[in-house]
Amino acid sequence: HRPMADRISGFMITLQDAARESGSEIEINLRPISPRQWMPATFHNPQQIAAKLPKGLTLAGFSDAAGEDFDRGRAGWGGEAFYPVAGLTNPLPTARRLTGRFSNAAQQNSRLIVSYDEPDVLDFNLGLYEAFKRAKPGNKVEMMQALRGYAAELAGEQGADDLLEIWLALDLISNDLEVLDFGPVLSFGPILARWINRPLVPFPSELSSEETEYYRPFLFQAKGEEQANNLIDIQAMRMFEGYGARMLAQRVYEMVMANLSKALRLAAGLQEKATDPARSAEWKNMINRLTVLRSLVQTIDNVIAYQALLDLARSRGAEPEANPVLGTAASWDRQEIQRLARNEIDNAVSLKRLIESSPVPLIHTAPIAEYETIRMLGPDLPAQLKNKIDIMNRHWLDYNRIYTVPNM
Which run of H or of E encompasses 29? Predict the structure, then answer.
């Protein structure tokens, strides 16, 4: 068992040496996440570890062995907030980090590490950086003016206000999703737990190996089949368990959907007013990406609610009536769980059609099937969505084994 300090040092030094052998020089600032209340600190002595690292390597921004201050600043570009949606970014976090960067002498003399993120938002992010470099905003008011100026570059004066409102809506969406953040919820649920493509069925343990083979190998966090069959068992956490969690997720869903609807309406208006075909196509792509985000948020709400209802039914331990009398209506929970299942089937159908019809990628997927991983969906996602739809339809009568069949 190697000490954490040795493991971290060896990891970063190996990366730096490999880059040097390929003719490049790199700097690494390994930033530990801020521990939540139940988490121990990742490193107990980051300053001491950093002090032993070679030049260009540090931990949590502390000075390296040469005593060099590693004040680099960081400008991530907001795409991580909506991963796995491709090409959809929230520019507000970057705008906040860049505010004061070009107007403060001390910050100007420090180096800024910039990641321009994925290729399909590279031009957008470069443009944002250059716009702020020119405007040099020093406070929030000037930041909003700089953002509005950049929006005018992209949408013209007539569309600048609407585009800025879309960005502000995306920022609110990102902020609201953080309520469910035990790790980015769009990754933890739809990707790590494969909510996006796995079926919602009453008896997941009864699915055949042929029905689970396209998603089960990627549920890496499951200790066994019991955990794998529980939709909300993610990395040994059940943070979305129970009916109270369902209601919390539902409230987040309501807030997110309100801002998503606003963003979609404004984007549709930009497309309608666009006279340049290329610009019109860009607004259409934005609409499609926002629609994918809406689909993922819908799935999150459906899955958490579905598992809560399954758990509620199992906790009762009651068998369905074998011969319900005439006039027996469907119970509220039978109606609700089937509504959720039908909603998720319709959602998967719409997502499949959207992915297949889009001229640009809408979801990050591996280039070939062999590269699908626990954190990366496969290139055959539309086919996997069809599997999900077919399996859910095939097991529709299984609800009769949990709930009394209505006799009306």
Answer: strand 28-30
Residue 165 lies in a domain: no
Q: Are 9 and 90 within one domain?
A: no
Q: Give the domain range for residue 96.
A: 74-155
Stretch 380-406: mean pLDDT? 97
Confidence at residue 69, expressed as pLDDT on a 0 to 100 scale: 64
* 289 Cβ contact list (under 8 Å, min separation 6): 85, 86, 87, 88, 362
Q: What is the mean pLDDT of residues 315-344?
A: 94
- 74: helix, strand or coil: strand
Percent of the chain's residues with pLDDT above 90: 69
CA–CA gap between residue 35 and residue 30 (Å, rounded): 15
Give residue 349's pLDDT band: very low, low, confident or very high (50, 70, 90): very high
Shared domain check, 120 and 39: no
Residue whose C-alpha is closest to residue 86's, from 43, 132, 120, 50: 120
Q: 162 lies in a domain?
A: no
Asked whether residue 408 is assigned to any structural domain, the reply reads no
Residue found under tokens 């950093």:
50
Whether 215 is covered by a domain: the verdict is: yes
Are 340 and 233 in a shared domain? yes
Does residue 75 surpass a pLDDT of 60? no
Provide mean pLDDT across the span 379-404. 97
Mode of pairing for the β-strands spanning 28-30 and 57-59: parallel
d(CA 100, CA 93): 13
Q: Please tell me the distance from the alpha carbon of residue 317 to that of residue 371, in angstroms, as a whole number.
A: 43
Phi, psi of 377 (to 5 degrees): -70, 160
CA atoms within 13 A on the CB side of 235: 12
**Statement to judge: residues 236 and 381 lie in one domain:** yes
pLDDT tens profile 256-309: 999 999 999 999 999 999 999 999 999 999 999 999 999 999 999 999 999 999
Same domain, 200 and 349: yes
Q: For the whole model, what pTM was predicted?
A: 0.89
Q: Specify the number of domains making up the chain.
A: 3
Quick one: 280 and 143 in the same domain?
no
Other CB atoms within 10 Å distance of the CB of residue 94 = 22
